[in-house]
Design brief:
The complex is a heterodimer of chains A (490) and B (347). Chain A is mainly alpha-helical and 490 residues long. Chain A has 4 domains: 33 residues; 308 residues, Cytochrome Bc1 Complex, Chain C (Up-down Bundle); 71 residues; 42 residues, no CATH class. Chain A is built from 16 helices and 8 strands. In chain A, strand 5 and strand 6 form a beta hairpin. Chain A is globular. Chain B is of the alpha+beta class and 347 residues long. Helices cover 33% and strands 14% of the residues of chain B. Chain B is built from 5 helices and 13 strands. In chain B, helix 2 packs antiparallel against helix 3. Chain B is extended. Chain B starts with 7 loop residues before the first helix and ends in a 20-residue tail after the last strand. The relative contact order of chain B is 0.08. Classes of the chains: A mainly alpha (490), B alpha+beta (347). The interface between A and B is large, with 113 and 105 residues. Strand 4 of chain A pairs antiparallel with strand 2 of chain B.
């Protein structure tokens, strides 16, 4: 230790002691520094969501300082020539000014938009990882429910965010949201006029309502749930994949301090850095091109942000069924695709841990994760359900496919109305048999090169050179008679 | 880091000592972990008895140099951000590259430091048991002991429940003041005599409406932002007009008007198919760009494709003495998306 290091050490020790005498955190900090994180890349998906949320809060604060939640009609006289003299809402004008006149304003707006897309994408991937490894089983079922709740809130939050802009695209989205709210049986009319303050497009109280929901109510709920989510993980410790020395009762991995903390901070900075590169270099939602929203205007070929794609797909795929009894519209059409479909998807996901317990009769605590192949039925059910939702999502792009490839829109819809039921069945059986055959062969097609390199020697004999890096058994020089290399000889 | 460190051997010895101590400690901790009784339900996997814990203290001067270099990069990028902001008054692309570059350099520095500069350790931590039935029982007892000596428990709980429910109802009541009456859902600005104007307020002459294109019309001197304001106006040759009998006189000189708001999900209809190409489309049609509901203007707005649950509402037209288009009456049904109390067409 040289002089400087010794001085720093003394100061640090004194500061720590002074803090300990006042708040007494040393024991807790010691515990946290020794907290063990199991190493697996798929455990980082949730961290990416967390760090995107931080970027969203940071950039969002900047945007809030410029946004005006008002539908007062004004005439634009700003710097963008193509909209000169156009009538628009004050909200839209404030976002135009933020994007085109405030230095770095467009950068922050685009980073915010990209971060929202990445936030929800990483939550969905995290959910997929949690499902297929059985990480939702006791004791993590509560945390799984919290995660699902956060996913619902995140989708709502993203929708509210891009609706605030009041450009032509977001206005169309709000009209659809209003129609879905109206379509709820019995209470739809009351609910929609209550949210919008009157018939669409609503009165001027709607805009401050939407803003407070987007900048305060949902973010505060998300922040609270994230805190509970993380606290619960720390209390139960991370789950882990089976491996050398790994048991139900322990956690094997890298302690928080210093290596894991540095790597995780590195991930946080990398997520933020990539989001800033995206926001700076790749244009997203150029609102000045869409123009202002008026209820009598719309644009063709409109597409929402990706996480709304499954809802627009469901609305498009649904036949024109509307339940009318004695002249009274009991269930209007948008209810099926816009409300019943997402509700069903989330109800199934919330109910899944209980459904699985009922079939497996396994209510024990599980801290070791499953490999997807070791639970062929769960994996197949999950893959089939996922494919069902993904098909609906894909239907959201049928109009773009028509514009790009010229495939008739109506024929696409007719094909998908059959495909939506056939594809999940095919996926179920294909996944189940793939799981079983992987179980038998022990191969890891995604992990590394699994084949054997074969060389013919000068004397004509065949030599097998195994170069698979993570093969457990010693490499073979002669293949056993009557077996295929890489397969269990039994 | 310290170039003036003249005793590398003593430093190495100290590192070695730390390493041995840490290893011993980790082993001891691991052994304690192993002595924890196994959970009855826990499944053990082959190889779970192996002790994977280890601690390696690196001494990689090149990695340390790389970290320092990356930190300098981060500083350069971050400084560039300020320069770009001031000098180029905020070019979005350059600003993005500057912040992104700074954050990514910092990220790389952290990751290199985390992997090659600081001690690398694999440790085993005991999970502990969440379920402590003894404690749970005691906690329940402690809570229940708080009610000791109360004789009329049911009465108190009942009264408390009533008070709570009443308070919740009171708290929810103001929600009602958020919404207006549902009557406004049946209203549109259209009534007999209202003139059709374009989005600049110029009234439409019947002569201006050409076959083959569609026109957006709004009510004169009424709020154009109201949901029911927008109209689609087209003129069709007689061969395409097959209106139901009660609507015979709704389309003077083949000019038809429909609500522009799709009765499916409230988007403005903005696609019009005309002229028709006989093999694929027999009739002129309106299509909504949101979910592609398709309606026939010649047949009273009948739906031929898509998810809409009812026809497009039609507005009866008339032509005044000046040749201008006017509404002959209001809508005979509700415009916009359907709901529980929607008034549908009777025909």
């Amino acid at each position: 230790m040289n002089l400087v290091e010794r001085y720093v050490h003394r100061r640090f020790e004194r500061a720590s002691r002074s803090a300990e005498q006042r708040v007494g955190l040393a024991a807790g900090i010691k515990w946290a520094m020794r907290y063990v994180f199991p190493d697996h890349w798929s455990f980082l998906l949730g961290e990416i969501a967390l760090y995107s949320f931080m970027v969203l809060v940071g950039t969002g604060i900047f945007l809030t300082l410029y946004y005006i939640p008002s539908d007062s009609q004004v005439v634009y006289h700003g710097s963008y020539p193509l909209l000169q003299g156009t009538q628009m809402s004050e909200a839209y004008r404030s976002v135009l000014n933020l994007s085109l006149n405030v230095p770095a304003g467009l950068l922050f707006r685009q980073v915010h938009h990209w971060a929202a897309d990445v936030f929800i994408a990483s939550i969905v991937l995290h959910l997929i990882r949690v499902f297929f490894t059985g990480a939702y089983r006791k004791p993590r079922d509560l945390n799984y429910f919290i995660g699902l709740t956060m996913l619902m809130l995140a989708i709502l939050e993203g929708f509210a965010g891009y609706s605030l802009v009041d450009d032509l695209l977001s206005g169309m989205g709000l009209a659809i949201a209003y129609s879905v709210a109206m379509s709820i049986p019995l209470i739809g009319g009351q609910l929609a006029t209550l949210i919008w303050g009157g018939p669409f497009p609503g009165n001027s109280t709607f805009w401050p309502r939407l803003e407070i929901v987007h900048v305060l109510l949902i973010p505060a709920a998300l922040a609270g749930l994230i805190t509970i989510h993380l606290a619960m993980i720390m209390r139960q410790h991370h789950s882990q994949f089976p491996g050398p020395g790994r048991r139900e009762r322990n956690v094997v991995g890298t302690p928080m301090w210093p290596a894991y903390a540095l790597r995780s901070i590195g991930l946080m900075l990398a997520v933020a850095g990539l989001l800033f590169l995206l926001g700076g270099l790749i244009q997203i939602n150029p609102i000045w091109q869409w123009g202002p929203y008026h209820p009598y205007l719309s644009e063709n070929g409109a597409q929402p942000d990706w996480y709304i794609g499954w809802l627009i797909g469901a609305l498009r795929l649904m036949p024109n069924w509307e339940l009318v009894i004695a002249g009274r519209t009991v269930i209007p059409n948008p209810f099926w695709g816009g409300a019943a479909f997402p509700l069903f998807v989330f109800v199934v996901m919330f109910a899944w841990p209980a459904i699985e317990r009922r079939f497996t009769r396994d209510a024990r605590r599980h801290d070791l994760l499953d490999r997807p192949r070791d639970r062929p039925v769960r994996t197949a059910v999950g893959a089939a359900f996922l494919s069902w939702v993904v098909v609906v999502f894909a239907v959201g792009s049928t109009d773009r496919i028509f514009y790009r490839l010229g495939v008739s829109y109506t024929e696409q819809i007719h094909v998908w109305r059959v495909g939506i039921w056939v594809i999940p069945i095919v996926v179920f059986f294909a996944t189940r048999s793939a799981c079983r055959s992987l179980q038998r062969s022990g191969a890891h097609p995604l992990r590394a090169w699994q084949g054997n390199v074969v060389r013919r020697r000068a004397d004509g004999a065949i030599e097998v050179l195994d170069d698979s890096p993570d093969r457990v058994e010693p490499p073979m020089t002669e293949p056993p008679v009557g077996t295929v290399p890489g397969q269990d000889p039994r | 880091m310290s170039a003036d460190d003249d005793k590398p051997i003593s430093r190495l010895a100290r590192l070695l000592g730390v390493l041995v101590a840490a290893r011993t400690a980790a082993r001891a901790a691991a052994n304690r972990g192993h002595s924890v009784p196994r959970d009855a339900g826990g499944t053990e996997h082959p190889g779970s008895g192996i002790d994977p814990s280890k601690r390696v203290v690196p001494s990689d001067r090149r990695a340390e140099g790389l970290v320092a270099l990356l930190l300098v990069f981060a500083a350069v990028f971050a400084f560039a951000f300020t320069v770009i902001y001031v000098v180029l008054s905020g070019d979005t692309q350059l600003l993005g590259v500057a912040v992104g570059g700074a954050l990514l350099s910092l990220a790389a520095a952290c990751i290199v430091a985390g992997k090659f500069v600081v001690p690398q350790e694999t440790a085993i931590e005991d999970r502990g048991r969440l379920l402590d039935e003894e404690q749970t029982g005691e906690a329940v007892e402690m809570i229940e002991a708080g009610g000791e000596g109360i004789s009329r428990r049911a009465m108190l709980v009942g009264a408390g429940g009533v008070a709570g429910a009443a308070l919740l109802t009171a708290a929810a009541t103001p929600l009602a003041s958020l919404g207006p009456t549902l009557k406004s859902l049946h209203e549109t600005p259209w009534a007999r005599g209202v003139r059709l104007v374009d989005d600049q307020g110029r009234p439409y002459l019947a002569d201006e409406i050409q076959i083959g294109s569609f026109y957006t019309a709004l009510p004169e001197n009424k709020d154009p932002e109201s949901f029911g304001a927008g109209l689609l106006v087209v003129r069709l040759p007689a061969e395409f007009i097959h209106l139901p009998a009660p609507r015979r006189d709704w389309a003077p000189y083949g000019i038809l008007a429909y609500s522009k708001i799709c009765p499916h999900a409230g988007c403005a209809i903005s696609l019009y198919r005309y002229p028709t190409y006989a093999p694929t489309s027999e009739q002129p049609a309106f299509t909504c760009p949101c979910h592609y509901s398709t309606f026939l203007p010649g047949e009273g707005g009948r739906l031929v494709f898509g998810p809409a649950g009812r026809a497009l509402p039609q507005l009866p037209l008339m032509i005044d003495s000046g040749g201008y288009l006017r509404a002959a009456a209001g809508f005979h049904e509700d415009i916009g998306p359907s709901w529980w109390g929607v008034h549908r067409a009777q025909s």
